[in-house]
Each structure stands twice: as structure tokens, then as C-alpha cells.
Amino acid sequence: MNTTTERQMLVDLLKECRTLREHSHERNLLFPLCRSLIGVADRYRQDLGRLRGMLIGVVERRGLDAVALSLSHICDNRRIDLLEIEALLATLGVESFQTPSDLFDAANQRCIKRIHTSIPAWHQRIAQRLMPGYRRHGDRLVRPECVTVYVFNGSECSSTSDARRTKSCSE
Fold it and tell me: What average pLDDT does the structure give for the chain?
């Protein structure tokens, strides 16, 4: 071999090492950060839903204006925080997604809960979307969308991370 070929091989190896180091850095630093931020965003979404429900109940009863106003401010602050978290995730290349189909998709969704139905046509249909999924750079799954799924004839719901990729919600 000549020195030019050897140099090119070394340059190529160095590029591969850098690429591997960058991917290792992503896995070791960015993904845990993203997962943590996603968890905070999920809790914010849940709190916002609960607070909205409380606020509606208070407004319907009338007379508790101060409590209703406080709850309204909390909702507004949580909404702003959620937008900031989602903007931070976006700077890391992480965006939320919702699958377009009403049918359960084991590759992109996790079945958290199942609802038994006597209607065969509803089998594997999404009953409720609980939390959005998250992808990095459009294709790398960070966390699947969490859903509730209708199942016919007492089928089991697989909610483990390994099984969710290979099985449907009814298997």
C-alpha cells in the first residue's frame, strides 16, 4: 500500500470514530435529557387537564371567583411552561407526534390500557390518546404515543417496551 491510501484509510477511520462518539454522546446525554423533559411535559399536560376540569366545576357553581381566578392563572402558567419545554425539545430535534390512523400501530404506539368491547369492528381501534409520542429528527423514536385501545373478546394488552414493538395490543 502507498502512503496516500493508508492516510485515506486513517482519515476514514477517524471519521467513523467521530461519528460513533457523537452517537454515543446522543445516547448517553441527550436521550435521558429528552426523556426527562418529555416526562415533565406529560405531567404538565395532565395537570392542565385536571385544572381545566376543576375550573369548569368552580365556574358552574359560581361564587368562588378567587379560586377560579387562581386556577386560571395556574393553567396559564403551566401552558407557558409547556410551550417552553416543547421549544427546548425542538431545539434538540425532538418533536411530538400523533399517529394519523385510528388503528393501533405497535411500531409507534404503546397500549397503556385496554377497553373490552363487544363490537368486532372496534377491535384494535384507538379509544383515547393519552400522551403524544416523540421522535428525534423526524424518524428516531424517543417515546411511542401512549393510547387506550379497544379489544374484542378479552384480548390481552401488551404494554412492555419489548413486546409493544413486536405485538399488537390484542396479542
Answer: 77
